[in-house]
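Build the 3D complex.
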Amino acid sequence: MTLPRAVRLVEVGPRDGLQNEASPISVVDKVRLVDELSACGFSYIEAGSFVSPKWVPQMAGSAEVFAGINRHPGVTYAALTPNLQGAEAALAAGVGEVAVFAAASETFSQRNINCSIGQSLERFAPVMAAARVAGVPVRGYISCVLGCPYEGAIAPAQVAAVAVELHAMGCREISLGDTIGVGTPGATRTLFDTVAAVVPRDQLAGHFHDTYGQALANLYAALLEGISVFDSSVAGLGGCPYARGASGNVASEDVLYLLQGLGIDTGVNLDAVVGVGQWISGRLGRANGSRVALARTCA
Amino acid sequence: MTLPRAVRLVEVGPRDGLQNEASPISVVDKVRLVDELSACGFSYIEAGSFVSPKWVPQMAGSAEVFAGINRHPGVTYAALTPNLQGAEAALAAGVGEVAVFAAASETFSQRNINCSIGQSLERFAPVMAAARVAGVPVRGYISCVLGCPYEGAIAPAQVAAVAVELHAMGCREISLGDTIGVGTPGATRTLFDTVAAVVPRDQLAGHFHDTYGQALANLYAALLEGISVFDSSVAGLGGCPYARGASGNVASEDVLYLLQGLGIDTGVNLDAVVGVGQWISGRLGRANGSRVALARTCA
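Done.
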């Protein structure tokens, strides 16, 4: 067993987190959230999404967020861009990286973005082209990699097939998401083992949800497979749209605690993240979803 | 990596769980809890504690609980017995196994049970003798194996030293408890590796708390070390006395979900446990501490 010596965390709270929160939040608070996360030492922050506010009201004002934040040197500020229109707006806002989003489940793709997996990949081609022209890298997400709310189990080969396509299209990194948190460590290892056979291991990331309490066990399993990039969300912002009231994104604080315990460097200050998580949880009027934060504030 | 093919779960909800709950609970409900857990398929249930009700009011009436339960064939009903008086009462109540409780931390031992580790072990000698005469096996607990609220880090060798003594005194099995939930997977592996060098691996159990969200990751790490007995608590009953409001015992439901996903047999019906956990949580007026239960009831 050789674990990575360093891990890069992709802080997704301001995007994947906030977009699933019920309480509205102002641009001013979004800017403050991103700025405070920068100060914690995160080197990659997903700061917004250039989608129609009709579909995702929480992501309205992403251009203003990008205009308002204090860009720290060495930090990548990324945004989700579902189509060319979104990509153009994101590039105009000066994003450091754009992200595209595909599913490993055909039914999920149809229900979530109204098109087949193949059609979604076609839709990304002009996004990739626009990003290439602007000299901005692209990150790919694949959802439902360990299970789908409609189809149930998803074959690792199916995930690998989508990952290969995203990689061939030019995605710099591909994040494999357990969108509904149903995975367990053995399945996680098989998944990364299968996908790493066709996409370089150091271009893969793990994105775990804690809906069934398995996120950190799965993350440890992925570390054992040599994966060294993980997505997480401060205070566990986000929740699970398929089980309202249940947990969603794994909390950055809990991931940081695990990695610190394993002696793996992240460059992120856990105490500072706990502070930011407490602030944003209060602002949203929700309980802090991080167990580390809860333990520290109860103690 | 070869994981155990089967795991035995020690359900500690009725003892370690309830004794840390704030709401009072009647003997009738305790009996029902134990009976329903028996029906779930658990083969080992810690059903009470023979301690002074002055010290642990929630454990009053353990003799009545043992008199009232329906004993399923093949199920061990155990009780905690801190001293000879408790052991005699437990044996008179017809317990299937008694348990003694030592600490790996000298300061914790002093503060928790008012004596040194050495004195606590001496106190167990007559308990062991009485149990031997009665033909009842003894289980040993060691607390603070991955950290102490007073001393901080605890050396694995210190845990091994206590484990060796309990084993030499005749303990059939020794449960290593991360009492304050501070451990992470690497430390867990080192701990079990160290202790298994001096006590047979198949006589060791893992007892993890989820205070910092690490319980299942640690449990997976222990499985990778070949440990095949784990303590858990239905609905995560118990909480953490060192961080009121934070999580304590890992929820049996979440452990079962992990083990099912790994294809490891337990003989326990997860759906049934979710039902019992919902009932007892309602009875205690507390939120269900199992993420699996929360996901299933929110979905």
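The interface with chain A takes residues 3, 181, 183-187, 210-214, 216-217, 219-221, 240, 242-247, 251, 254, 257-258, 260-263, 290-292, 294-296, 298-299 of chain B (CB under 8 Å).
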